[in-house]
Design brief:
This protein is of the alpha+beta class and 292 residues long. It has 9 helices and 13 strands. The strands form 3 sheets. The chain has a 5-stranded antiparallel β-sheet with strand order 11-10-9-12-13. It has a 4-stranded parallel β-sheet with strand order 2-1-3-4, with helices on both faces.
Length: 292
């Protein structure tokens, strides 16, 4: 039997019983030695080097702000000392920064709603906003918004001002974007990709147009054609996210990629969760083996 490989896992202790996490159990079955890297712990570079000296690969398994930003610093530090991190700190700018996500989609010709940048100080051109709102609704979002907390739809300029102030009051840090609203008929879609390959495609049926946040939803898997599969895999590669969940909507036969999440939920379909977790574990194991 060859030497036991090690993998570092960035996580946070806020989740109770993380050490009994389903992914960790799957990794241990691969005979991988887990090096735990909790995001809440005070960081000392020399200690981190020592702790991860046997690791070539690190998996960042954090999802929520503000810990997400702390885990990002750990990711960048580990990359500086020569470790590979999945997903890389560079990809953070395309999964959490919605403006950079839009620019990357434009660069790679990935269909996404037309988006406008609105500075935090609300110095915007009212004439342009009024022109857009004559025949289009807009969806306002915080650039760094989380879980739909800073998302509002507007259909008139007075509503634009009101909703913008509401969002700014909730978050004094995040600049804003305005996306052209594309009707989704209270349905959205989640593509789960592992190693840039589409592994699951789920329709989410909701009672709200937002399709996110604390909204009750129903899920079911659907089959995709080759064109849609290629679109999802192209987006995953363009954004540099080997493991991710893409949010899409469909309107008049055209698909739009709306957002991306670097730590996708795997439990939309109960029967699929174990299979997806095992695929991630196998991918991480092979990456550890390749890098060793």
């Amino acid at each position: 039997m060859g030497k036991k490989l090690s993998i570092g896992i960035i996580y946070y202790k806020t989740y109770k019983d993380y050490h009994d996490n389903i992914l960790l159990r799957a990794l241990k079955k691969k005979n991988l030695n887990i090096i735990y890297l909790p995001a809440e712990e005070q960081l000392d570079v020399n200690e981190l080097k020592e702790k991860t000296k046997k690791c070539k690969l690190i998996y960042n398994d954090t999802t929520c702000q503000p810990i997400l930003f702390e885990s990002l610093e750990i990711s960048k530090t580990l990359e500086e000392i020569g470790k590979k991190v999945i997903n890389s700190s560079h990809s953070f700018f395309y999964q959490e920064d919605k403006w950079m996500f839009y620019l990357k989609c434009l660069e790679h010709k990935i269909p996404t709603p037309k988006t406008y940048f609105i500075p935090m100080e609300t110095r915007y051109y009212s004439k342009i906003i009024k022109e857009i709102l004559k025949d289009k609704k807009l969806v306002l979002k915080g650039v760094f918004s989380d879980n739909s907390m800073l998302v509002e739809m507007v259909s008139s300029y007075p509503m634009f001002i009101k909703k913008l102030k509401k969002i700014v009051k909730k978050s004094h840090r995040s600049p804003m974007i305005a996306q052209e609203y594309i009707p989704n008929f209270k349905r959205s879609y989640r593509a789960t990709l592992i190693n840039y390959k589409l592994e699951q495609f789920v329709v989410k049926i909701s009672k709200s147009w937002k399709q996110s946040g604390n909204v009750r939803e129903h899920f079911r898997t659907i089959k995709v054609n080759e064109k849609l599969k290629n679109l999802c895999e192209k987006a995953s590669r363009a954004l540099g996210l080997q493991v991710c969940g893409l949010d899409l909507i469909l309107n008049s036969g055209k698909w739009y990629v709306i957002e991306v999440n670097s730590c996708p939920a795997l439990d939309f379909i109960y029967e699929d969760e174990k299979k997806l977790v095992n695929k991630i574990a196998n991918f991480l194991y092979l990456e550890c083996k390749r890098l060793s």
